[in-house]
Amino acid sequence: MEQEIDTTQLGEDIVKKLKTIYDPEIPVDIYELGLIYDVMVNTDYEVKILMTLTSPNCPVAETLPKEVEDKVRGIENVRDVEVEITFDPPWSKDLMSEEAKLELGML
Question: Domain 7-95 adopts which CATH fold?
Answer without folding.
Answer: GMP Synthetase; Chain A, domain 3 (3.30.300)
